[in-house]
User: Fold this.
Amino acid sequence: REAEFFIDALEGRGFHLGAVVLNKVLPRYLLDRGATAAARSLAKDIAALGKFQIIGEGQETLPLVAFNLADEHPYDEFDIAFQLSAERGWMIPAYTMPPNAQDVKMMRALVKLNLARSLVDTLDDDIAQAIETLEAKGPVSESERKRVHTNVTH
Assistant:
């Protein structure tokens, strides 16, 4: 109910003080809603590539998309992360799970508040391009992997 009041104020249906309160209270709420919508859109786009399964699809989550390769390929999630970083400048990390599930790999795209729909489309296109590159050239070589810095101080 409170959110509806603030949305009314944002759309000009509330009183002027509501806009002042809105600037201090609501921006995070509205931006989170926008980021969540962008994450859902990105998840749908990634799934439509036909190569990935979306982790937690349809569940309420943080504004992020967790996904992994649905089938066996000569490349893996780390190769895709490398291609996205090296060729397109995206930081979409790949991970392995903790002990007893360490063979499970996944990727995570955190959708920040400023990720516009056009960037969602660009990321989806860049993931598709990374897949095409890996299918043409094969997995990332060990020498390429050694050039990747995984520490934030680099």
The first strand starts at residue 52 and ends at 55. The CA atoms of residues 13 and 45 lie 35 Å apart. Residues 1-26 have pLDDT under 50 and may be disordered.
